Amino acid sequence: MPSERAMKTGSACPPPPGPGKLRLYSMRFCPYAQRTRLFLAAKGIQFETINVNLKDKPDWFLEKAPLGKVPVLEKDGKIVYESLVCNEYLDGIYPDKCVTPSDPLEKARQSMVLALWDAKVIGFYYKLMTGKEDERPALGKQFLDGLQFIEKALTQPFFSGNKAGALDYNLWPWFERLCMLKPIGVELSVDKFPQLTAWMERMLQLPEVKTCYFSPEAHAQFGKSWMAGSPDYDIGLEE
Amino acid sequence: MPSERAMKTGSACPPPPGPGKLRLYSMRFCPYAQRTRLFLAAKGIQFETINVNLKDKPDWFLEKAPLGKVPVLEKDGKIVYESLVCNEYLDGIYPDKCVTPSDPLEKARQSMVLALWDAKVIGFYYKLMTGKEDERPALGKQFLDGLQFIEKALTQPFFSGNKAGALDYNLWPWFERLCMLKPIGVELSVDKFPQLTAWMERMLQLPEVKTCYFSPEAHAQFGKSWMAGSPDYDIGLEE
C-alpha cells in the first residue's frame, strides 16, 4: 500500500497496478471521490489508493485523466473517470452486491434526483462556501429551497428503498459536509427537513459510511485551507 | 396527432397519452430533444410529440418537469426527463434494437467521451453563438481544441463501432448545427478533423438522422430568432 500522502507535480508516475488489481486515484476530502469510495466499501471490493494533489497535478495524472479530476479508476491498463461513470462501471465489473438499480424506471428516477441535485442544490453549496458575506442569506435560501426537491424525493428509509443504494451513496458526501455551512448560518432543521435529517442519522450508522467518514473538524480544517488557496491534502497523516 | 406548434403559458394541459402510449415533450430545434428523437427513430418506436415553448413555458409543463427543459417522456403516468436519462430509459423499456452498450467498459468509454464533450466543447459552442465579436477568435480556438478530444475518440467508422449507436446519436445534434458557426469563421477542416468530417458524411446518410434533420437554413433562421430574444419555435409550420 503506497503512502496516503497526495502526489504532486514532479512526482514519478507510479507503476501500474498488478494484473487484476484495482486502483483508485482519489483526494481524501473530495466529495466526488467519496462517492466511489462508498461504492467500493459497500461492495467490499479490494483496491489500492493513490491520492493526488489537485492544485499541483502531476503530468502523469493529466495524461491518464484529461479532465484532471478524481475519482479515476485503473485496472488492467484501462482507465475510467467521472464519479457516476466509475460507480456504474464498478457495478458492471463486480456484479456482486450490485447497488445500481436494474429496473429502467427506478434507474431513471435516481438519475433525475441527481439532475435536480446538480441543477438546484450543488451550485449554491459551493457559492455559499466561497461567496461574500452579504450574498449568503439569499444563497442560503436558494440552497435550502433546492434541497426541498431532495427532501420530497425521499419517501422510504433510504433513497434507494429499504436499503442504502446508488443514490444514497452518490448524495451522501455533501451531507457529511453540511457541518461546514453551520458556522455561516445554514443548517437543516428537523421541522423543514424531517425526511433528510432522519436519513442522515440512518446513513451515519452504516459501516460503509463509517469507513469513508471524516469528522466535522477534519472537514472544517480542510475547507479552511482550501478557501485560503493552499489546500492541505494530508491533514492527520504522519510525515 | 396534435399540432406541432409549440404550446405556451396559459395553454390547457393536454390529456395524458392513452395506456401504453409514449409521448415526447420536445422543442423542434432543441439539440437535447434531438438526441431522444434520434433514439426513437433508430429504434423504430411509435410515439406522439407535444412541442413546448421554452421561453413562455406552460405551468403544466413545469409541474411535470421541474427543470423546465426538454426532452421529457411520458408513458402510463410516468415521467422521465434529461436527454441521457430518457435515452437509456428507452433502451430499458424497449430492449429491441438496443443502442446503449451492455459491456461495462464500452459504456464507461462512451460516457467519458460525453464528459469530455461537456467539459471541453459544448460551453464554447454556446459562448461562440452569444459572445462578442472580439472574443470569437479565442473562443473558436478553444472550441476546436476541445473538439480534438472528440476527433481522437473516433477510431472506427462510428463512435459506437461499425454501426451508429448511443454515442453517435448523443453527439450528432451539435454537428448538424455546426453550419451555424460557419458565418463567424469556425468550421471543421478535413486536414485537422479527418475522422469527424468523414463521420459527418456517414451520419447524414442514416435514415434516423434524415428523419430528425433540419436544413442549415432552418437552423440559421431559428438561431437568429433565438439570439434576438424571440425564438420562433414554429418555423415552417402552417398556421
TrEMBL record, chains A, B:
A single MF term (Gene Ontology): methylarsonate reductase activity
Boundaries of every GST C-terminal domain copy: 103-235
Catalytic activity: methylarsonate + 2 glutathione + H(+) = methylarsonous acid + glutathione disulfide + H2O; L-dehydroascorbate + 2 glutathione = glutathione disulfide + L-ascorbate; RX + glutathione = an S-substituted glutathione + a halide anion + H(+)
Entry GO CC: cytoplasm
InterPro entries: Glutathione-S-Trfase_C-like, Glutathione-S-Trfase_C_sf, Glutathione_S-Trfase, Glutathione_S-Trfase_N, GST_omega, GST_Omega/HSP26, Thioredoxin-like_sf
Record domain GST N-terminal: where: 20-98
GO biological process, one term: glutathione metabolic process
Keywords: Oxidoreductase, Transferase
Family according to the record: Belongs to the GST superfamily. Omega family.
Full protein name: Glutathione S-transferase omega
Organism classification: Eukaryota, Metazoa, Chordata, Cephalochordata, Leptocardii
